[in-house]
Write a sequence for this structure.
């Protein structure tokens, strides 16, 4: 047989340290309605770690390819595919593998002026942040408080919050990370190691934040409840702290506030039309330079374990890309 291709597999539920880089046969010619894509850049993210641990809502069958979003070049086109040609640069679900066959409907053309690394780094983060702002109905002139603002979904929320015309406050755990949050356009930054409630109150003239974007959870959520503005909305994005929190309904009542849980997976499943529409909009923003994804590390697939370790150690600002 000819040339083998690399793939990064999760072979058992547990830690990213157990991932295996293997060589397997490349996929056959694409079937009708499919295209073959040679992947050049792959984005990895925190939710991959949750999936590897076997804690994700829907467990993946073992072994599975890790990662989920990628960018590459179409090398073969199956019959019935008219809107995509060999040589097109596309964004595709894919992950840590060199070539894939995928339904032509699942790939998106990448704007000509966007680098493949940037294209691979932005969709999940920006789609998550954008859908969140839609759910929270963020308005121009409101104050948006973004926790974990140096992470992938955090930086995307800062970027989109500014696009919406909000005043953005970003929190992070180190001054180095806060510098990146400031670079992304945040109006105010807070190192939340010593808490953030008083500073948010001061910045907002005692009113509190209108929308709070929380990928952290735990005690951060509890403090957020104490600096939410009247009619404020807290977006539950995830729990990088490892612990969800209990929302006290009496606090919500006093503040006329809402807590909104949401996932991109839910939108993809229950409202695929809106998901496609949102993706087109953020692609347009990328093309016109209105958003600027931030990549902190570019590594190879052989270094996948190290890449995930950087996420675990919270050393990542924005995104890790595997080429």
């Amino acid at each position: 047989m000819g040339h083998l291709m690399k793939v990064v597999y999760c072979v058992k539920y547990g830690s990213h340290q157990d991932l295996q880089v293997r060589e397997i046969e490349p996929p056959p010619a694409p079937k009708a309605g499919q295209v073959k894509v040679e992947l050049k850049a792959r984005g990895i993210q925190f939710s991959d770690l949750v999936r590897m641990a076997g804690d994700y809502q829907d467990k993946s069958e073992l072994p599975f390819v890790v990662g989920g979003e990628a960018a590459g070049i179409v090398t073969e086109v199956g019959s019935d595919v008219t809107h995509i040609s060999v040589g097109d640069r596309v964004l595709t679900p894919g992950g840590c593998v060199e070539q894939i066959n995928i339904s032509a409907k699942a790939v998106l053309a990448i704007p000509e002026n966007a680098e493949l690394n940037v294209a691979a780094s932005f969709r999940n983060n920006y789609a998550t942040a954008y859908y969140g702002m839609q759910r929270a109905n963020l308005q121009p002139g409101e104050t948006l408080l973004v926790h974990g603002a140096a992470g992938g979904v955090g930086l995307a929320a800062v970027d989109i919050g500014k696009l919406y015309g909000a005043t953005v406050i970003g929190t992070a755990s180190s001054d180095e990370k806060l510098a990146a949050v400031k670079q992304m356009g945040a109006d105010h930054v807070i190192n939340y190691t010593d808490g953030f409630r008083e500073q948010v109150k001061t910045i907002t003239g005692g009113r509190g934040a209108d929308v709070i974007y929380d990928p952290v959870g735990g005690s951060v959520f509890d403090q957020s409840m104490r600096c939410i503005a009247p009619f404020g909305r807290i977006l539950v994005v995830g729990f990088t702290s490892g612990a969800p929190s209990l929302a006290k309904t009496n606090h919500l009542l006093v503040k006329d506030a809402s807590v909104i849980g949401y996932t991109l997976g839910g939108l993809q499943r229950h409202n695929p039309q809106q998901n496609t529409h949102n993706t087109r909009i953020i692609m347009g923003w990328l093309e016109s330079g209105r958003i600027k994804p931030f990549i902190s590390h570019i590594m190879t697939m052989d270094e996948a374990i190290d890449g995930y370790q950087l996420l675990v150690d919270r050393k990542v600002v924005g995104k890790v890309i595997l080429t």
Summary: Residues 5-110+293-322 form a domain with the Quinone Oxidoreductase; Chain A, domain 1 fold (CATH 3.90.180.10). The longest strand covers residues 34-44.
